[in-house]
């Protein structure tokens, strides 16, 4: 009788003191959660830095007669496209969000029974952030693809043959932010799996 | 000792047959779930139809000397842009997905205690579809914005002054697919709220 009492109070309901152990074993997934949020922080910060350092200045030849200069210096920067500005904003918010939730996750990492309300809130905000990051990734990818291939139907010329470094940076940002979006979806699934394991 | 036994079986294992009513009232949210999925079906189908009927043919004036024609007929279609093709694919998948999950939802609409595993699976797939729809919305929005405003830095001219009907269709698709993305995120939150209400 003594043995069962200590087992129970440790596992489910410390307030009643003598409840039976629950059917599925209680596992705290906040170790994995914390690791994923750390990865999310690393990916969003690196994508942000790669995006803001993408400025490239090139000499573009002009086809004008002699009084005009032979070539002009033109820069390509991320803030020339609204899609890239949205991406920088989304990455900055995700980076900040990952720090805050990493702290929250670290606080309950050793708690055997973290609050279900907290898991629900995490799903709510992770799902919102996943939507924001996925749409930013889509917008950046869509615009970057035009820059890479051009669009002959509407005579939008490709620019990646001139601004090679700029395009590499944009491409790397799109790839890493895709990873960040996937991490956010995995976090939603992980938190809901925690809730599922605790459901009746 | 008797009291504690009934308490426990009421909380965790209804299959024993003599359980007390569970602490939080069991609410089945599948009515709302079904309505949202119906809305998702309507929005994805209408966005899909608006997108595929967006073809517009215009006479574009040429600035060539007399032997050449004064103007040429050029069409704008959704499949001229990879971003729009991705959107059509995403909308078709979402439309099909909404039908399947609507049926699943209808099957358990009168069940007082639907399976938690089903809720978890719904969160999993809804989160995936939300990511796909959000990225497609972002890609379409990013490309459509260039069509609307152009980009002077890279000399991509706006096309919406010529292809007005095409642009209206693309804009409507982007707006309705944004609604579809939001519905998918709300579905994730609704299912996880169901799980939360059932959690210990």
From TrEMBL, chains A, B:
Check the record and name the PANTHER family matching this protein.
CASP-LIKE PROTEIN 1U1 (PTHR36488)
How this chain sits in the membrane, per its record, is: Multi-pass membrane protein
User: Can you say what this protein is called?
Assistant: CASP-like protein
Q: Where is this region: Disordered?
A: 1-20
Question: Biased composition, Polar residues: where in the chain?
Answer: 1-10
Q: Which family does it belong to?
A: Belongs to the Casparian strip membrane proteins (CASP) family.
Domain Casparian strip membrane protein residue range list: 32-182
* Tree of life domain: Eukaryota
Q: Which GO terms describe its cellular component?
A: plasma membrane
Q: Which UniProt keywords apply?
A: Cell membrane, Membrane, Transmembrane, Transmembrane helix
Please name the source species.
Dioscorea zingiberensis
| Record keyword Zinc present | no
* Compartment(s) of residence: Cell membrane
Matches recorded under NCBIfam families: A_tha_TIGR01569
Q: Which residues cross the membrane?
A: 34-52, 83-110, 122-148, 169-196
UniProt KW Cell membrane keyword: yes
The record describes its quaternary structure and partners as: Homodimer and heterodimers.
Question: One Pfam family, short name please?
Answer: CASP_dom
The record ties this protein, via InterPro entries, to:
CASP/CASPL, CASP_dom, CASPL
């Amino acid at each position: 009788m003594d043995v069962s009492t200590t087992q129970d109070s440790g596992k489910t309901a410390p307030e009643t003191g003598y409840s039976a152990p629950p059917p599925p074993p209680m596992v705290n997934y906040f170790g994995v959660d914390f690791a994923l949020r750390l990865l999310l922080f690393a990916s969003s910060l690196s994508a942000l830095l790669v995006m803001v350092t993408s400025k490239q200045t090139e000499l573009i030849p002009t086809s004008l007669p002699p009084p005009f200069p032979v070539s002009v210096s033109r820069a390509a920067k991320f803030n020339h496209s609204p899609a890239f500005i949205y991406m920088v904003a989304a990455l900055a918010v995700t980076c900040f969000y990952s720090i805050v939730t990493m702290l929250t996750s670290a606080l309950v990492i050793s708690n055997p029974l973290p609050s279900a309300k907290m898991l629900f809130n995490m799903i709510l905000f992770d799902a919102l952030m996943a939507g924001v990051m996925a749409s930013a990734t889509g917008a950046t990818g869509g615009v970057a693809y035009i820059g890479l291939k051009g669009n002959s139907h509407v005579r939008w010329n490709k620019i990646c043959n001139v601004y090679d470094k700029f395009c590499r940076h944009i491409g790397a940002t799109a790839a890493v932010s895709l990873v960040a979006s996937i991490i956010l979806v995995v976090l939603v699934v992980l938190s809901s799996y925690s809730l599922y394991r605790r459901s009746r």
